[in-house]
Structures are given as structure tokens and as C-alpha cells.
Design brief:
It is a single chain. The chain has about 150 residues and is mostly helical. About 70% of the residues lie in helices and about 0% in strands. It has helices at about 5-60, 75-90, 100-115, 125-140. Helix 3 packs antiparallel against helix 4 (about 125-140). The radius of gyration is 29 Å and the shape is rod-shaped. The N and C termini lie far apart (about 60 Å). The relative contact order is 0.10.
């Protein structure tokens, strides 16, 4: 092998090595940024979940009277009072801000079920079902069932 051939091969391999090094540094930088963004996103979601907990806990407590294990039926006055309490919960302390679109829809459906009068035989079952769905979704939103609703976590 001549000296010229050796220089060409060395130069060729050197260029490939430099390109590979630059590409490796670029990939490393992108992965580091991705990891940092992922950690920041997870921390943000944890902080949001912590701030949602008192709000969701107060909503949970309010819905106790709609539990499937209750012993008495919900009369019209009780339904109206619960509906008013839920409206206040949503607006007065800004608790509605913590609801995702999906959870807000479930919340509104549960509130709507309270508008049916106690003379409607199926209304009792509908209220129980809607508020049970609401409580289940509250647990899902907080990750109690092992996942957050936002699949980006």
C-alpha cells in the first residue's frame, strides 16, 4: 500500500469518525432534552394532581348521598340542594378549573340527572349510576387506578 492510499483511507475513515461523533453528540443532546422534558412534565402532572386532591375530595364528600349503599331515596329538595352545592363547588372556589373536558362532561351529566323529579321511578337509578361514574372518573384522573387520564405521562 502506498503512502497516498494510506492517507486517502485514513482521511476517509476520519471523516466518517467525525460525522459519527457529531451525529452521536446530536442524538445525545436530543435524548437529554427529551428526558428533561419528560421529567418536567411528570413533575408538573404530580403538582397538578396534588392541587386537585382537595378539590376532588370535597366533591367526593358531596356525592356521598348518591351512593348506591344509601338507605333512602332522594327527594326533590335533597336533589335541588345537591345541585346547588355542586354548582357552588364548581364556580365559587374555582374547582371547575381542575376538571378535564371529559370529567367536566361526566360532572355535568351527573348534575343533569338531579333535575329529574323523584316521581320519576328511573331517576333514582340514573342518579346513582351517573354519580358512581363521576367518582370512578375522579379516581382515574388522580391516578388511583394506576394511570393518569393524560396518556403523555
Amino acid at each position: 500500500m502506498s503512502w497516498d492510499d494510506f492517507l486517502k483511507i485514513s482521511l476517509d475513515k476520519g471523516v466518517y469518525a467525525i460525522l459519527l461523533l457529531v451525529f452521536g453528540l446530536w442524538v445525545n443532546r436530543k435524548l437529554s432534552k427529551y428526558k428533561s422534558d419528560l421529567e418536567e412534565s411528570a413533575q408538573t402532572k404530580i403538582l397538578i394532581a396534588k392541587s386537585r386532591l382537595p378539590s376532588f375530595t370535597s366533591l367526593w364528600k358531596m356525592t356521598e348521598i348518591t351512593s348506591p349503599t344509601r338507605n333512602n331515596k332522594l327527594d326533590d329538595n335533597t336533589r335541588d340542594a345537591l345541585n346547588a352545592s355542586l354548582k357552588n363547588w364548581y364556580y365559587i372556589n374555582g374547582n371547575g378549573l381542575y376538571l378535564t373536558n371529559e370529567l367536566r362532561n361526566i360532572y355535568l351529566q351527573a348534575r343533569d340527572s338531579l333535575r329529574a323529579r323523584s316521581t320519576d321511578a328511573s331517576s333514582e337509578e340514573e342518579i346513582t349510576q351517573k354519580f358512581s361514574t363521576l367518582r370512578t372518573e375522579l379516581k382515574n384522573e388522580l391516578g388511583i387506578y394506576g394511570y393518569f387520564k393524560d396518556k403523555n405521562v
